[in-house]
Specification:
There is one protein chain. The protein is mainly α and 85 residues long. The chain folds into two domains: 35 residues, no CATH class; 35 residues, no CATH class. It is 61% helix and 0% strand. The protein is built from five helices and no strands. InterPro entries: DUF7218 (IPR055642). This is Rho termination factor. It comes from Actinomadura coerulea.
Length: 85
């Protein structure tokens, strides 16, 4: 069922399936629906993927946003938790 705040549901689902966070997937889906996929893709982001972060940096970010159980998580679990948040 389409959500009112998501302008391109198919794009949103593809991004979520790739592992993007709900917020990021919605932002990209809505931007590409309004401006066109090529324009949005060229603009891009400057922040590296969580996969490129060190475990210490991931732990720090998880602490900042209040992810429970972060101290016992390995790097891939931290990345998933951050993306799901």
């Amino acid at each position: 069922m389409p959500r009112a705040q998501i302008k391109d549901e198919k794009k949103y689902q593809k991004l979520r399936d790739k592992g993007e966070s709900k917020e990021k997937a919605a932002r990209i889906a809505n931007a590409s629906a309004g401006q066109g996929e090529k324009k949005v893709g060229r603009r891009g982001g400057k922040s590296p993927s969580y996969d490129d972060w060190t475990k210490d940096d991931l732990l720090k970010r998880a602490r900042e946003i209040g992810i429970e159980g972060r101290s016992s998580m390995n790097k891939s679990e931290l990345v998933k938790a951050l993306r799901d948040h």
